[in-house]
Amino acid sequence: MGPTQPVNFDLDTVALMRETLDEAWARLRPQERAATPKSSLAVRILETAAQGERDPQRLLDAALSELAR
After folding, report:
1. CA distance 9 to 54
2. Among 33, 35, 44, 51, whose CB has the most other CB atoms within 10 angstroms?
3. Terminal alpha carbon distance of the chain
4. Among candidates 35, 38, 34, which has minimal Cα distance to 18?
5. What are 7-21's pLDDT values in tens digits?
6. What is the value of pTM for the model shown?
């Protein structure tokens, strides 16, 4: 995959992503928190939002998708 174009998020989207990250982190069990960097959840949320997704549940699902595997 080549270099990506920078993505700018408006303040509402940044707030949505922050809330989604907090929600995703809160849903993890303690042992999952110990094994999962919070930044990895944030990256999945950012990548999904950069593709245009703004639905909070879909962003949450994207953040937690790796844990389901």
Report:
1. 11
2. 44
3. 23
4. 38
5. 999 999 999 999 999
6. 0.88
